[in-house]
């Protein structure tokens, strides 16, 4: 397992030029903490934020990419473009893409391949809906998403997997300790069986992570980071989550 937690802030469709001051403050205050920190602003801010974060340890990432390297895809952004704009990571398979944009696992896998070709480190998201959870389908849903979203090219490459129960994203709800542990045990078993010692990703939890619950989540066995949404938009909300990683076991 990695020796440092990864705390990733997904700004989603939030942030304008004035928001660069938030990134600058997070970078300055993160220096005294042990976690790896990554920020995923909207694509319009990537080049500007790359300049602001130059010389810091903050990792910069994109929120999505197209599966093709270039072409006639109006409105889309390729992995190579993200790389050129200063990104070194990318979030793929987020539930807001899977459900809001109806992206199937096969497309997520193609995007992962594109990210790897461009030299980006992917964070691959999986998670079940409330109906699937209540229907007892969590294990088969997560198993299918893992099998169909992770291409073979990930062997020996850096990547992360984030478990984000859809019903906990932006709702204020959070999965119980038992639910998180069950999902993480499944992910670890799957990765061990498929890739063996050839991969050692962070396993992140996402879904209404905030200052009040970050310490509890990060202390759970197998959890080596968090994918944070709304709480990453302000210094006051994000820094306590980063600080919580200092005392969490690795």
Task: Describe it.
With 250 residues, this protein is α/β, with parallel strands linked by helices. It is built from 10 helices and 8 strands. Helix content is 40%, strand content 15%. The chain has helices at residues 20-30, 46-53, 79-84, 95-98, 105-118, 130-134, 138-149, 177-195, 211-218, 235-247; strands spanning 6-10, 36-40, 59-62, 89-92, 121-126, 160-163, 202-206, 225-228. The model has no long low-confidence stretch (mean pLDDT 95). An 8-stranded parallel beta barrel has the order 1-2-3-4-5-6-7-8, surrounded by 7 helices.
Describe the secondary structure blueprint for this structure.
Layout: E1 6-10, H1 20-30, E2 36-40, H2 46-53, E3 59-62, H3 79-84, E4 89-92, H4 95-98, H5 105-118, E5 121-126, H6 130-134, H7 138-149, E6 160-163, H8 177-195, E7 202-206, H9 211-218, E8 225-228, H10 235-247
Helix pairs in contact: 1-2, 1-10, 5-7, 7-8, 9-10
Q: How is this structure best summarized?
A:
The protein is of the alpha/beta class and 250 residues long. The chain has helices at 20-30, 46-53, 79-84, 95-98, 105-118, 130-134, 138-149, 177-195, 211-218, 235-247, and strands at 6-10, 36-40, 59-62, 89-92, 121-126, 160-163, 202-206, 225-228.
Termini gap: 8 Å
Question: Tally the helices: what do you get?
Answer: 10
Helix and strand pattern: EHEHEHEHHEHHEHEHEH
Strand coverage percent: 5-15%
**Tally of extended strands?**
8
Placed side by side, the strands forming the largest sheet appear as 1-2-3-4-5-6-7-8
The whole-angstrom Rg is: 17 Å
**Can you give the helix content as a percent range?**
40-55%
Overall geometric form:
globular
């Amino acid at each position: 397992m990695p020796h440092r937690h990864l705390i990733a802030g997904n700004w989603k469709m939030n942030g304008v030029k004035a928001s660069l001051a938030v990134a600058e403050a997070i970078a300055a205050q993160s220096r005294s903490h042990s976690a790896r920190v990554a920020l995923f602003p909207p694509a319009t801010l990537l080049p500007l934020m790359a300049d602001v974060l130059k010389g810091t340890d903050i990792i910069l990432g994109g929120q999505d990419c197209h599966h093709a390297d270039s072409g006639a895809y109006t409105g889309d952004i390729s992995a190579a473009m993200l790389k050129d704009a200063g990104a070194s990571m990318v979030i793929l398979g987020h539930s807001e893409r899977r459900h809001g944009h109806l992206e199937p696992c096969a497309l997520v896998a193609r995007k992962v391949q594109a990210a790897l070709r461009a030299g980006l480190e992917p964070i691959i998201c999986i998670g079940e809906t409330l109906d699937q959870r209540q229907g007892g389908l969590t294990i088969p849903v997560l198993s299918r998403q893992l099998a169909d979203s992770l291409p073979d090219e990930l062997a020996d490459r850096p990547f992360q997997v984030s478990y984000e129960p859809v019903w906990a994203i932006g709702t204020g709800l959070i999965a119980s300790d038992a639910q998180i542990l069950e999902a993480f045990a499944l992910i670890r078993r799957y990765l061990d069986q498929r890739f063996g010692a050839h991969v050692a990703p962070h396993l992140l939890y996402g879904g209404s992570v905030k200052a009040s619950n970050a310490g509890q989540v990060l202390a759970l066995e197998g959890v080596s980071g968090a994918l944070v949404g709304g709480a990453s938009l302000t210094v006051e909300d994000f820094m306590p989550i980063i600080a919580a990683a200092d005392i969490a076991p690795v």
